[in-house]
Amino acid sequence: MSVIVCFCSNKIKNSIDRRRSWPKSGGRFALLLLIAAxxxxxxxxxxxxxxxxxxxQSATVLQAPQAAQAIxxxxxxxxxxxxxxxxxxxxxxxxxxxxxxxxERMHESNVxxxxxxxxxxxxxxxxxxxxxxxxxxxxxxxxxxxxxxRFDGIHLDIEPQxxxxxxxxxxxxxxxxxxxxxxxxxxxxxxxxxxxNVDIPNKFLKAAVEPRRALLGSVPRVTLMLYELRNPxxxxxxxxxxxxxxxxxxxxxxxxxxxxxxxxLARMAIALRTADxxxxxxxxxxxxxxxNRDNPHYxxxxxxxxxxxxxxxxxxxxxxxxxxxxxxAALLP
Length: 333
Prior knowledge:
Strand content: 15-25%
Helix content: 40-55%
Structural class: alpha/beta
CATH superfamily of the largest domain: Glycosidases
Number of helices: 12
Number of strands: 8
Shape: globular
CATH class of the largest domain: Alpha Beta
Mean pLDDT: 86
Strand order of the largest sheet: 1-2-3-4-5-6-7-8
Radius of gyration: 20 Å
Low-confidence stretches: 1-24, 40-45, 316-333
């Protein structure tokens, strides 16, 4: 295995050094496939980019036989370094056990695990924000009770832009409230020694300098959801998709930090989804590393989502199993 890794490393390094002379078609696409297969760690960079993966409906996904091992295997094959696992506000004892087992499996492979919390209203003060903070507290309590299988961070998917009153280009009146929510969560995660990552649409990056400064200063990490770069009805060659993604990723990174020099600002990962690229998604993700690796603001990429890799037959029924405490005790090692 070490010989193969060394071979991949040399081939990738030599090819990357000549990347500007690549042809715009098969040669470039084949190299990106090689990078995706080997993993960017083979390049030997001082700090490898983050490679994230969303896992939604964890209570359902983890019911499948050997689910934790299957996720671990997928992460190894797809060069994933961290996962974002949806966690409901209230978990049954069996669900808590399954989360603990998943974290243990991931940590055995040095894969970080972030608790994924979602909302469309948590930007609002009062009850909506309090519900989110209470949800964060349940993660902190989980960590206190499972010291050897702790979540490594909190991952927020708060989408006020989905509400009708917030639709439309340039409509960012909700942004100050959202930033206040981010800051409130960060106070909790900083005290607990957890990372904090938040998902954002490109709409946020079109704000003026001061709102962007406040946004990127409120959290240590952001993940840009870079979806739908072309019309679904539009056809494009592999080379055209690669070029469009390269230009878009660099443009939005530049847009995010334009006029901002503070080194304490959040670093940015870029997320792509299966619906936009299908089987070509690994090559597209590899491209993000290849063209942005020298940008100090670039954190890595994230893949949406693990659920897309599951066949219908492999997905367990969407039910939550309730197991009483005495029965759960019998399941523990």
